[in-house]
Amino acid sequence: MLLKFPTNFLWGAATSSYQIEGAANIDGKGKSIWDTFSHTPGKIKNDENGDIAADHYHLFKEDIKLMADIKMSAYRFSIAWARIYPEGKGSLNQKGIDFYNKLIDELLNKDIKPLVTLYHWDLPQKLQDDGGWSNRDTSKIFCDYATTFVKKFSDRVNFISTLNEPAVFSIHGHADGYMAPGISDKNIFFSSIHNINLAHGYAIQSMRSIKPNLELGCVLNLSPSLPCSNSDEDTKATKIFDMYWNRAFLDPMYTGSYPAALEYKLKKYIQNDDLKNIHQKCDYIGLNHYQHSRVKADKDYLLGARVAYKDERPFGLDNQEELTSMGWEIAPNAYYDQIMELKNKYNNPNIYLTENGCAYSDKIEKDGSINDVKRIDYLKKYLSAVKKSIDHGAKIKGYMAWSLLDNFEWALGFEKRFGLIHVDFNNLKRTPKNSFYFYKNIIQENGFES
Ligand code: FCB
Fold first, then answer.
1. Could you list the active site residues?
2. Of 72, 94, 416, 436, whose Cβ has the fewest other Cβ atoms within 10 Å?
3. How far is CA 329 from CA 169, 235, 275, 326, 332, in A?
4. CB-based burial of residue 182 (10 Å sphere; 0-12 exposed, 13-18 middle, 19+ buried)?
5. Backbone angles phi, psi at 405, to 5 degrees
């Protein structure tokens, strides 16, 4: 059966600055917390770092040509804040602005719509030195950076997301320390949650006041939470986890209130008009989604509840279940459920699917091709779930595959390959995988044969 998508549906791919750009110390860029973290021994698998990554900074034209070859209509990427403001604030770095001007112009030349994310985890180190997200001033400084972005680029970019996955960088950056800035501290974690929400709200207000018709929102990683057993502890833990992972940002940003139990924990940080300032009209929710959250109670973990991370298998999942090379389950039904939850409980918003994809250890065949059948199968399954949600009334506007290129997968280094395009990190050669050609057909047909 041919699954057809709505007219004007955007088909594209996503990346983020630190994961692909490289050029970490070039043309005036300041250090970010990921530069610091990845150069701290023991933090990243094999002590790898993003100094060069996929060198997109120098190879962006080649990458955009590949996107244009298959007629992608959109490209989601993020701005390295420390390229624009090397110290997070203060003096602007013209060479950083020049780089994004060239990138954006090249995309527009090829009829590819730029979907910009202002913050995909690479906070300027200088701001971290002043307390990072636990410092309330950082929200205002982020707002200034967003304002500058709009002044410099909104003649050509009208789709802007404030933050990528605030739950992920607040939990893994400030509660368990698995990611940059590598902190595990209750007060820092709680104050960061609130200041990150404020940063979003201030930025939306300021950007909107400069240009009312921008398309603005936030990108959230949301996923249905399930207890890993039927014990009371795990059931309770699931509610707690759901609150931190799914509601801590979605609720204040899109409904104007924190879940009651979270509000209680944040009360010493919340000031008078904060919730009003956070709750701004947004034009869409950016949904990143990969799998269920299978939750277990864990007294030794700061949240008291957690899901598998690092090399653990999802808790409570059947041992026979096949996983991707991230150790993630393949659960298109969770994607459908998540989308429908947004539709039904969050007032049927416009939704952009800003990330979805899978990592596999792809092999290059003797003839140079990469036959990544599992990724093709994954795409079919997840896109069928998307189509079903559209048929059931969800307002899905586009799908961005994670990822355009193999890249630096944070604490896991270069081993986990998510790209539709293979990158040889020894010589930076790009080789489209078969999933890339499969995606080409989807774009051409605006759908696929299920
Ligand atoms: C998401 C991140 C993205 C990438 C994928 C696999 O949580 O936003 O940068 O790491 O996971």
1. 165, 355
2. 94
3. 21, 20, 36, 9, 9
4. middle
5. -125, 150
Q: Which residue has the tokens 């974690």?
A: 189
Cα–Cα distance for residue pair 391/389, rounded to 1 Å: 5
| CA 258 – CA 353 distance, rounded (Å) | 24
Phi (first) and psi of residue 74, to 5 degrees: -150, 155
CA dist., res. 129 & res. 92, Å (int): 19
CA atoms 59, 60, 61, 65: torsion sign: positive
CA of 376 to the centre of ligand 1 (A): 19
Q: Pairing mode, if any, of strands 305-306 and 293-297?
A: antiparallel
Question: What percent of the residues of the chain are helix, what percent strand, and what percent coil, each to the nearest 5?
Answer: 40, 20, 40
Other beta carbons within 10 angstroms of residue 325's beta carbon come to 16
Q: Tell which atom from ligand 1 comes closest to the C-alpha of 19.
A: 9
- Ligand 1: residue of 179, 221, 288 to mutate (most ligand atoms within 8 A of CB) is 288
How much distance in Å is there from the Cα of 288 to the middle of ligand 1? 8
Q: How far apart are CA 8 and CA 5, in angstroms?
A: 9
**pLDDT tens-digit map of 107-141:** 999 999 999 999 999 999 999 999 999 999 999 99
When pLDDT is cut at 50, 70 and 90, the band that residue 85 belongs to is very high
Give, in order, the Cα–Cα distances in Å from 8 to each of 74, 351, 355, 400, 446: 11, 14, 19, 14, 9
pLDDT tens across 278-306, in order? 999 999 999 999 999 999 999 999 999 99
The per-residue pLDDT for 311 is 82
Whose tokens are 């990243």? That residue is 44
Domains along the chain with CATH numbers:
2-214+266-288+351-449 (3.20.20.80)
CA distance linking residue 151 with residue 290, whole number of Å: 34
Ligand 1 contact via 119 beta carbon (within 6 Å): no
- Taking each continuous run of H as one helix and of E as one strand, the counts in the chain are 16, 15
pLDDT of residue 14: 99
- Decide: pTM greater than 0.85: yes
Copy the structure tokens of residue 387: 């189509």
